[in-house]
Amino acid sequence: MNILIIGSGGREHAMAMALFNSPSKNQLFALPGNPGIGEYCECINIDPSNFREIKNFSKNNNIDLVIVGPEVPICEGIADYLNEYKIDVFAPSLEASKLESSKKFTKEIAFENNIPTGEAKWFDNYADACLYLDKLEAPYVIKADGLAAGKGVAICEDLNGAKNSLEDVFNGKFGSGQSVLIEEFLHGEELSYFAITDGKEILPLMGAQDHKRLLDKDEGPNTGGMGAYCPPPMLSTELENKIMKQILEPTIYGLRKRGIEYKGVLFAGLMVKENQPSLIEYNIRFGDPETQALLMLMKSDFAELLFETVNGNINNYNLEWEKKKAITVVLANDGYPSQYNKNAEIYGIEDAEKNPNVKVFHAGTSIIDGSLIATGGRVLNVTSIADTLELAREHAYSAIEKISYKGKIYRNDIAWRALSKIT
Q1: Is residue 97 included in any domain, yes or no?
Q2: How many domains does the chain contain in total?
Q3: Which of 148, 168, 183 corresponds to the end of one domain?
């Protein structure tokens, strides 16, 4: 079958690897792709926002399935557009994607269906939001309502910082016309949880833990994610059942009550306290960098799973995983998530991958004048699997030492939560 992947990051590189390794031997294309994805796919220079060109390419190349990696095309309605032309898409519809594109929408679904979550109020002007803040106690949670590339959330320890964060949103830092959600701060430990749904059934995938802050000890600004590991030790069978019964199933039911069918991956950001999960937010696509670790552990045919989801056939699907642990560490460019260098040459990936348990996924790289250049904020994702998390972590950091480029930065403490529990 012919499959088209939309995206250019580490998540899409991991998807390409999993699809390439599928027993069903697919012809793979990616747009725009990256140098790592090119190992598995024919990369096509089409802008992911150009739906008409994507449709034309899909028709001309007999594409059987389009898989959309990043959130922006999904939240702009690419699934609806391509479905009109009888092109199958692994991604939720425009209406269903509001679970990520509007935090207000997600809260409404949660409140309507008794899904455990923090209290919240939303505002479309600075003055009213400030008046509400004056009534609260720190810490304050300020969220831009719409898409913000994972950077639109501020947790502020004092009132002045919270009001500054409000100004950032209303002044257009995360896009024009954003409203603000002011949310109750939830205490506990964060958890990412992934499931697949075909509109009727929900198939649990796996949990993971991401590291959003730029610096060790969870300090510094929020990023798109500096590393992840799975499965997390905290995810017991009891907790997983609560997540399914109290959060994911009521969400799909609540969407159906509104006449919205959800097909695709459902990624819940959760806070867990005393083994009780609460919903923080939803994403409507695979996480980045969680997917890089997750797909290293999947034994099942990834292509088959996505086709069965689109066709509404995941009931009783037998999903198999490696009984191992996986970790991914993000190598970024100095200055990320703000201004950073875009012309440093990268060396050492082949040496890093001499360990068969290590895979280096390209997140922000380009070939310029025949050289591999670090052109993104997040550059590479060094991913490893092993029988234990400690060993997987050791493999990953040993591989990192073999990779070099000017301005390479990374966190040294990925998986610290799990390892502190283990030790």
Answers
A1: no
A2: 4
A3: 183
